[in-house]
Amino acid sequence: MSSSKSRISKRGNREVRKRLYEATLSAARYNPNIQAIYRRLKDQGKPDKVARTAAARKLLLLAHAIYESGESFRAPAEEVT
Fold first, then answer.
1. What Cα–Cα distance (Å) separates residue 49 from each residue in 6, 24, 25, 46, 55?
2. Residue 78, burial from CB neighbour count under 10 angstroms (0-12, 13-18, 19+)
3. Residue 79 pLDDT greater than 60, yes or no
4. pTM across the whole model
5. Is-contact 34 24, C-beta < 8 A?
6. Most CB within 10 Å of its CB: which of 7, 23, 34, 72?
7. Closest Cα to residue 34, out of 23, 48, 46, 18?
8. Coil, strand or helix at 32
9. Radius of gyration (Cα) for the chain, nearest Å?
10. Tell me: the pLDDT tens digits for 44-68?
11. What whole-number percentage of the chain has pLDDT above 70?
């Protein structure tokens, strides 16, 4: 067991990781789904990097699902209370 801090994996294409991180900066601000994940983790006291990495993963999974389905992105309907 290591006592060093964990870090983001360096696997995969460096440029893709960089662009995904940049896209997450915007998504955490303007996309309600990504923003909810980011906010929830920050409210739990998680470090910024942990919350942003989790949001980046969610954004990547969302992009992959859109790519696989071949459909256009549709924002989820807002709940009416």
1. 10, 11, 11, 8, 10
2. exposed
3. no
4. 0.73
5. yes
6. 34
7. 23
8. helix
9. 15
10. 999 998 999 999 999 989 889 999 9
11. 83
